[in-house]
Design brief:
Number of helices: 8
Distance between the termini: 36 Å
Helix content: 25-40%
Strand content: 15-25%
Strand order of the largest sheet: 1-2-3-4-5-6-7
Radius of gyration: 19 Å
Structural class: alpha/beta
Oligomer: single chain
Order of helices and strands: EEEEHEHHEHEEEEEHEHEHHEE
Bound molecules: zinc ion
Largest sheet: 7 strands, mixed
Length: about 280
């Protein structure tokens, strides 16, 4: 993902201006996309990035370019640090803005000073020219919300669908079964465009969602194919299934693989000899 370049500021539609979060990395690609949403002088800031010092001047340029004079409020797709981490700096610069997200008590406890407001499934954040409807889509994170931009029937997909790379399902707080259900729910919404939290705009939303769902099913098939040859531990499975990927990504791949195995275990298709221990072996049920 590293190496893909995107402009710091770009206008993707009359309602959507993107300011890059200035936090490129192996896992964030070109960095977090932070969005100014709306058409009026006050706009919603969706996901203010990670909180790196270079971001505020970029946000300021994006506001100028968009004709946005004030930030109305901050709305978050979820509480991962590359999305919520920038809130404090933005509030220091622009005042005590309201911040809304879907609740995740364990994580939200670290941000008590932000006085987070609850945004539930189906709840709406509105500004001139834009209506954002929250769609609770857990799996990547328990508090994950996507937002349907009703005026464009476009989807802000957060980390559920990316313009570059694929979504990591963390071992601690992620859930692959929930994630696949969330993708199916998004496909039902048939969004035209997708504005992801990382990488460029996706022009054909349903095609991308189908590709994501097919990708996970293909991984599952590959993992089962390894186990058909005999019991194997996660690192062995990763070596075979992710042979084409740089080893730096294998730790993330191990998380995804464990998630697949847990889902298959719940479905009664595999069983674990040693739980999630690295040496624990998995076999077909
Ligand atoms: Zn995330």
């Amino acid at each position: 993902m590293l190496g893909m370049r995107m402009p710091d500021v770009d206008v993707w539609s009359e309602r959507v201006t993107v300011a890059l979060g200035q936090n490129p990395s192996m896992f964030t690609g070109p960095g977090t996309n932070t969005y100014l949403v709306g058409t009026g002088p006050e706009r919603i800031l969706l996901d203010p990035g990670q909180g790196v010092p270079g971001y505020l001047p970029v946000l300021e340029r994006a506001m100028e370019r968009a004709g946005c004079r004030r930030i109305q409020e901050i709305v978050l797709t979820h509480g991962h640090p590359d999305h919520i981490g920038g809130v404090r700096a933005v509030r220091e610069r622009y005042g005590k803005l309201r911040v809304s997200k879907f609740p995740w008590p364990e994580s939200d406890a670290h941000y008590a000073d932000l006085e987070l407001e609850l945004l539930g499934d189906g709840a709406v954040a509105r500004t001139e020219g834009a209506t954002l409807r929250g769609v609770h889509t857990p799996g990547h994170a328990p508090d994950h919300l996507c937002f349907l931009l009703e005026e464009e029937r476009a989807l802000f997909s957060g980390d559920n669908v990316l313009g570059v790379g694929t979504t990591v399902i963390p071992n601690q707080s992620g859930d692959l079964g929930q994630y696949l259900a969330s993708l199916a729910r998004l496909l039902e919404l048939a969004p035209r465009r997708i504005y992801p939290a990382h990488g460029p705009v996706i022009e054909d939303g349903p095609a991308k969602l189908r590709e994501y769902i097919a990708h996970r099913h293909e991984r599952e098939r590959q993992i089962l194919a390894v186990l058909e040859r005999g019991p194997a531990a996660v690192p062995e499975i990763v070596k075979l299934v992710y042979a084409a990927y740089p080893e730096a990504l294998h730790a993330a791949a191990a998380q995804s693989t464990t998630q697949h195995l847990r889902k298959l275990e719940r479905e009664g298709r595999v069983r674990s000899g040693g739980g999630d221990a690295p040496a624990g072996r998995w076999s077909l049920a």
